[in-house]
Amino acid sequence: MINLAKHNLKDINVNLQQGNIKKTTYQDNSFDLIKSTGSFYLWNHPEESLDEIYRILKPNRHVLFFDSHKEYNQEELKNSLTKNLQNENFFTKRMVPLFLKKQIKMTCSIKAVEDVIKNSIFRDNYSLNKITLANLPIWLKFDLKKMTP
């Protein structure tokens, strides 16, 4: 994945690194913003990883997650997919919904996400909101804030 990202971003001055968020080599208070999309449900040790993120995040800054969740309206998703895929070929119209439903089955419930956050150092400073991205009503935005010590 990192090689593909390097290739796609070859004309942009960016420092791409691969690592493990559970334990990083970054200094304390290094980042103004940390963002993750579509990977939280894959983390093996989410509480420990959130605590590490807290360590490397600057005070009064945010961590933003955008992940799918299980508590979505199935009819709304079906209608959204139909609209999003209306100009696509037959194969795409059939495969995208199958892959998306498989991915959603693996993702976390909102309660599971909240339980992880409540067991992390962010327990007192977070918000969870169902949102729609790309016309898909399956997304959960969680905003975690590191307060000034």
Question: If you had to describe this structure to a student in words, what would you say it looks like?
Answer:
The chain has 149 residues and is an alpha+beta fold. The protein has one domain: Rossmann fold. The protein is built from five helices and four strands; from the N terminus they run αβαβαααββ. It has helices spanning 2-8, 46-56, 74-84, 90-106, 110-118, and strands at residues 31-37, 57-68, 126-133, 136-146. It has a four-stranded mixed beta sheet. Strand 3 and strand 4 (136-146) form a beta hairpin. The longest helix is centred in the middle third of the chain and has 17 residues, at 90-106. It is globular, with a radius of gyration of 17 Å. The N and C termini lie far apart (37 Å).
Helix content: 25-40%
Q: Give the topology string: H per helix, E per strand.
A: HEHEHHHEE
Overall radius of gyration? 17 Å
Largest β sheet strand count, sense and barrel closure: 4 strands, mixed
CATH class category: Alpha Beta
Low-confidence stretches: none
| Strand-residue proportion | 25-35%
Q: Total number of helical segments? A: 5
Examine the secondary-structure arrangement and name the CATH architecture: 3-Layer(aba) Sandwich
The beta-strand count equals 4
